[in-house]
Amino acid sequence: QVVVFVVSSTGEGDPPENFESFWSFLNDKPPQNLTYTLLGLGDSNYTEFGGFPNALKDFLEESGARSFYEFQVRIH
What we know:
alpha/beta
Protein backbone atom coordinates (compact mmCIF):
# COMPACT_ATOMS: atom_id res chain seq x y z
CA GLN A 1 0.00 0.00 0.00
CA VAL A 2 1.32 3.41 -0.98
CA VAL A 3 -0.39 6.63 0.11
CA VAL A 4 0.37 10.27 -0.63
CA PHE A 5 -1.07 12.55 2.05
CA VAL A 6 -1.60 16.25 1.38
CA VAL A 7 -3.01 17.79 4.56
CA SER A 8 -3.29 21.21 6.13
CA SER A 9 -3.74 22.67 9.57
CA THR A 10 -6.55 24.98 10.52
CA GLY A 11 -6.47 27.45 13.39
CA GLU A 12 -3.81 26.49 15.87
CA GLY A 13 -2.69 23.21 14.32
CA ASP A 14 -6.06 21.45 14.14
CA PRO A 15 -6.99 19.01 11.37
CA PRO A 16 -9.33 20.31 8.68
CA GLU A 17 -12.99 19.42 9.29
CA ASN A 18 -13.16 17.14 6.28
CA PHE A 19 -10.22 15.07 7.60
CA GLU A 20 -11.62 14.47 11.10
CA SER A 21 -13.62 11.34 10.23
CA PHE A 22 -10.61 9.84 8.41
CA TRP A 23 -8.38 10.76 11.37
CA SER A 24 -10.79 8.87 13.66
CA PHE A 25 -10.66 5.90 11.29
CA LEU A 26 -6.85 5.91 11.34
CA ASN A 27 -6.80 6.03 15.14
CA ASP A 28 -9.25 3.11 15.36
CA LYS A 29 -7.39 1.04 12.80
CA PRO A 30 -3.72 2.13 12.50
CA PRO A 31 -2.20 1.32 9.12
CA GLN A 32 0.18 -1.59 8.85
CA ASN A 33 2.70 -2.19 6.06
CA LEU A 34 2.02 1.29 4.70
CA THR A 35 4.48 3.25 2.59
CA TYR A 36 3.69 6.93 2.42
CA THR A 37 4.78 10.47 1.84
CA LEU A 38 3.28 13.57 3.38
CA LEU A 39 3.01 17.18 2.29
CA GLY A 40 1.79 19.48 5.06
CA LEU A 41 0.30 22.89 4.33
CA GLY A 42 -0.12 25.72 6.81
CA ASP A 43 -0.46 29.44 7.41
CA SER A 44 2.53 30.94 9.21
CA ASN A 45 0.27 33.54 10.83
CA TYR A 46 -0.57 30.82 13.38
CA THR A 47 1.84 29.57 16.03
CA GLU A 48 1.11 25.90 15.30
CA PHE A 49 0.77 26.23 11.52
CA GLY A 50 2.18 22.75 10.89
CA GLY A 51 0.58 21.11 13.91
CA PHE A 52 -1.67 18.58 12.24
CA PRO A 53 0.71 17.49 9.48
CA ASN A 54 3.38 16.92 12.16
CA ALA A 55 0.91 14.98 14.32
CA LEU A 56 -0.02 12.80 11.34
CA LYS A 57 3.65 12.15 10.53
CA ASP A 58 4.35 11.17 14.15
CA PHE A 59 1.29 8.90 14.22
CA LEU A 60 2.28 7.16 11.00
CA GLU A 61 5.86 6.62 12.20
CA GLU A 62 4.63 5.22 15.53
CA SER A 63 2.30 2.87 13.60
CA GLY A 64 5.27 1.45 11.72
CA ALA A 65 4.58 3.11 8.36
CA ARG A 66 7.58 3.86 6.19
CA SER A 67 8.11 7.13 4.38
CA PHE A 68 9.39 6.90 0.81
CA TYR A 69 10.05 10.65 0.52
CA GLU A 70 11.13 13.28 3.03
CA PHE A 71 8.32 15.01 4.95
CA GLN A 72 7.67 18.56 3.74
CA VAL A 73 5.77 21.46 5.30
CA ARG A 74 4.87 24.34 3.02
CA ILE A 75 3.81 27.62 4.57
CA HIS A 76 1.77 30.47 3.30
